[in-house]
User: What shape does this take?
Amino acid sequence: MPAWVLYGDGFLVAQELKNLTGETGADALLEANTHQFMAGQFNLPELLSVCNALPFMDAARLVTVNGLLSTLESRGGRGRGNRALGEWEGLAAAIPLMPETTHLFIIDQAISDGNSLLRSLRAATQVHHLPAPSGEGLARFIKEAAQSRGCGISPAGIRALTDLVGNDLWTLDRELEKLSLYAHGRNIEEPDIQEMVSLVREASIFNAVDAMIDGRPEVALRLLQKLRQDGAALPYIIGMVERQLRLVALARYWSDRRLAQGELAAKLGVPPFVARKTAEQARRNAWPDLDRRYQRLLETDLAFKTGRIDSEDLALEMLVADLAASSRGSRN
Assistant: This one.
């Protein structure tokens, strides 16, 4: 029977699912023949009962399973720390016995290659790993997405967009849709992005913190200096960096308690795409790293407020250097 495992970036997984169901005709089935299962809300016998049933007055039955692979990731998440298969041990053996009319899609977010269920399913399914692009791959994604909407985008525009949004493909897709309408078929340029991209300040802060966490101070400083040029005072910038670090700490707290990804946005009080990116930052921050960053943020704030540093630009450079140095120290 046709069966696929799709995992990686949520936007790319959703696109691939749409493409594959379109190719197989599974996107035009009766509602009675389409089934969605969310991890934690079903067991193996319930899944097999649906998968083994023949379609009702249709050519196929579409079954989508979301988040199951993630439930077998350990709390820390990688390699030998993955949990045993448990009740899902029989899934791989059951797939070849299902009717040819059943189209099974097991979809998930980024998981480790050592995931026990993923290893088990490789022989019984078609596995598509769809990681979020970075570097030249991300630039190519942006360029092609703009061209598909009837316009181009300059290299400076690509850099400005990636600085502000990073590789959050959902947000990039939404912003490129808006920018393509604004540009009316011409090249999208950097001033268009500064004019049109929503939540520019919040995005700049978020990606500056991301750059500092990854030890890329030059990117972080460029983003924060742009905010200064647009009139943002140092106390505002420090406050926004503090807010993002607080969100990262909260995301780390809830991640340690195995909160479902879909519930994180409500806990943090932010949109889902912000919650997804913050959770990614949290996974790259151990508690000692967060403590060091908070301490260095406080030291810079006090140094400026007490007059030990009287230049906002100098204080900003010291803040970025300190937080990026904390990142490099945590990896050594």
Residues 75-81, 328-332 have pLDDT under 50 and may be disordered.
